[in-house]
Design a protein that fits this description.
The complex is a heterodimer of chains A (308) and B (238). Chain A has 308 residues and is mainly alpha-helical. Chain A has helices at residues 4-32, 39-56, 63-90, 99-119, 145-167, 169-179, 181-186, 191-217, 224-239, 244-264, 280-294, and strands at residues 127-128, 135-138, 141-144, 219-220. Chain A has 11 helices and 4 strands. In chain A, the strands form 2 sheets. In chain A, strands 1-4 form a two-stranded antiparallel ribbon. The radius of gyration of chain A is 19 Å and the shape is globular. Chain B contains 10 helices and 10 strands. Chain B has helices at residues 43-50, 73-79, 96-103, 110-123, 125-129, 140-152, 170-185, 197-203, 221-226, 228-234; strands at residues 5-14, 17-27, 32-36, 58-63, 66-67, 81-84, 158-162, 190-194, 206-211, 214-220. In chain B, a hairpin with a 2-residue loop joins strand 9 and strand 10 (214-220). The longest helix of chain B has 16 residues, at 170-185. The termini of chain B are far apart. Classes of the chains: A mainly alpha (308), B alpha/beta (238). Chain A binds chain B through residues 169, 172-173, 175-176, 179-180, 182-191, and chain B through 51-53, 72-75, 77-78, 82-83, 85, 89, 91-94, 98, 101-103, 105-106, 150, 154.
Chain lengths: 308, 238
């Protein structure tokens, strides 16, 4: 049986999840040139916010009501943490050498993990998440309801973001702030507000990805943000950091590449022992190294001089 | 009758280095006032402080009867002070039309904005021809026109122009200076910073010569143009 269509679908799904998280890295980087290494943990807290909503609702609540409420709950938590991180951790360091906010981000990432591990009930092991496990056969491809949710969420999020950035007044102000923050202020743009909005959008998209993650895999844990965050960051760099379309494209390319590599690389003579899921991360980060070597600005990135 | 802009004993420092060391001057409505001086005299620092991008260490700025010190940059535009910065700083990846619209960011009168964009195209026809192009593709002189047009879009009471002739060909420089005269004739109040002292002084009502953070000489444009020390230092005569 030909497994390629199924593997492509798996890659596309994984990639949409990377892309949703990557938007948060790329928007923040595009505006304040900060790699928010705590973004993976913002994704994770979004998952726990959604889980909290699920646990608070009576069992037997329809998924049609449950999923939107979980999105709201998870989104609220992730947005609050993202905006709070900007306000209290990163903003005081604006204008400081770049290493300072970077180290702050790593510290914040560890702090968020530990807070969840220590204070969320039983968060030290994987916590069960409601699943959307009904399957559908589309020819040679089988997908779950959770996969349909993921694709729809990614398309809706991406389309509304593109519309917002290109068409709305605030979106225009966001582009101006990314290109030249001082001059944006001279136009009357409150750049602090724009930065807060960028963090909030990134946080909300990460929460959407976390809900999709839980629905798809059936459980979440306090460490889930580390690897997903690293992969999404890879996707953002792969697509061209600072470019929102690049983030989604990078996510999808990364997801497909890693899925196909782990499925088929053991068919190449001499590489039999390199196949399987356990090598997926190796291929993903090899791809990052190749891109950094041969196209450091990323797939859709422009070669721009460093503004610092 | 008080002046539109009143600067009193303004001091600005970058860390421990004081770039502006207590300057005072004023701009009356309808006037063109110029600050001239060499690199490092503190002219650009003065403008960046007036528009709120830098915080003064001491001194007073009063604009249209209101104190400006401590007001964030994005609120100063709303009071009617527009700043066309040194080096033009157009938004390179937005189109010319989008750049002009951003100049009117705080306005909500759609029709008025359209009219003023048209006015910018009348003032600089090349901008109208290329309105859908990314601003980064314009030549230096065209970018300068765009930066001026964009600053005018906020309908300012005072227009601050920082080195509009910098890096331009002689022909382009003449064109920019002619535009400034035209704006003056229409009654626009302008604070002009220039290294090209000859051009700036010939169209200014008032001029101030700055040297290492201080105003060393003030007078009407005409007087300064004929002042012997100015001619020696800035107009290249001996």
């Amino acid at each position: 049986m030909n497994t390629l269509p199924q593997q492509l679908a798996n890659g596309l799904l994984l990639g949409s999840m990377y892309g949703l998280i990557a938007i948060g890295y790329t928007m923040v980087y595009g505006i304040v040139q900060l790699i928010n290494f705590a973004h993976g943990e913002i994704f994770m807290t979004g998952g726990f916010g959604a889980l909290t909503v699920y646990l608070a609702l009576p069992s037997g609540t329809s998924m049609w009501a449950l999923v939107p409420l979980m999105l709201i709950g998870g989104g609220l938590v992730a947005v609050l943490i993202a905006v709070g991180a900007e306000r209290f951790a990163y903003r005081p360091l604006r204008g400081a050498p770049r290493l300072a906010p970077l180290i702050t981000a790593i510290g914040l990432s560890l702090a968020l993990q530990e807070v969840v591990r220590n204070f969320y009930p039983q968060a030290d092991k994987a916590r069960a998440f409601p699943g959307l496990d009904a399957t559908h056969d589309l020819g040679s491809v089988t997908i779950k309801d959770a996969d349909i949710f993921l694709v729809l969420a990614a398309v809706v999020c991406m389309a509304s973001l593109a519309f917002f950035v290109r068409r709305s007044r605030t979106g225009r102000a966001m582009q101006a702030t990314a290109q030249d923050p001082d001059t944006a202020q001279l136009m009357g743009i409150d750049t602090n507000r724009i930065i807060v909005i960028a963090f909030a959008i990134g946080g909300f998209f990460a929460a959407v990805a976390a809900v999709a993650f839980g629905l798809k895999y059936g459980s979440i844990d306090y460490r889930m943000g580390f690897l997903m965050g690293l992969k999404a960051f890879t996707a953002a760099v792969l697509g061209g950091i600072g470019n929102i379309y690049g983030a989604m494209l990078g996510g999808i390319v990364l997801g497909i590449a890693e899925t196909l590599a782990s499925a088929y690389i053991d068919g190449i003579p001499g590489m039999q022992q390199l196949g399987g899921q356990s090598w997926a991360n190796v291929w993903a980060f090899c791809l990052l190294i190749l891109v950094l070597l041969f196209r450091p600005q990323g797939l859709l990135g422009e070669r721009v001089a460093d503004r610092a | 009758m008080t002046a539109l802009l009143e600067v009193e004993d303004l001091r600005v420092a970058y860390g421990k280095i004081e770039a502006v060391k207590g300057i005072s001057f004023s701009v009356e409505a309808g006037q063109v006032v110029t600050l001239i001086g060499t690199n490092g005299a503190g002219k650009t620092t003065t403008l960046r402080t007036l528009s709120g991008l830098l915080k003064p260490t001491s001194g007073r700025i009063t604009f249209d009867g209101k104190p400006l010190t401590g007001v964030p940059a994005h609120k100063i535009v709303a009071l009617g002070l527009a700043h066309s910065p040194e080096g033009r700083h157009i938004f390179p990846r937005l189109t010319i039309a989008e750049n002009l619209q951003l100049g009117a960011f705080l306005r909500s009168d759609k029709e008025g904005i359209e009219k003023d964009i048209q006015r910018a195209y009348d003032l600089f026809p090349i901008l109208g021809e290329r309105r859908k192009q990314a601003a980064g593709t314009l030549s230096g002189g065209e970018q300068q026109m765009l930066a001026m047009g964009r600053a005018l879009m906020s309908q300012p009471k005072l227009l601050m122009l920082d080195e509009p002739s910098m890096g331009l060909s002689p022909i382009m420089m003449q064109k920019i200076m002619a535009t400034i005269s035209e704006l003056k004739a229409q009654g626009t109040t302008i604070l002009l910073v220039e290294q090209n002292a000859q051009a700036a002084l010939s169209l200014a009502d008032q001029g101030h010569v700055m040297e290492i953070g201080k105003v060393v000489l003030s007078g009407t444009g005409e007087d300064l143009l004929h002042d012997e020390s100015v001619r020696k230092a800035y107009l290249g005569e001996d």
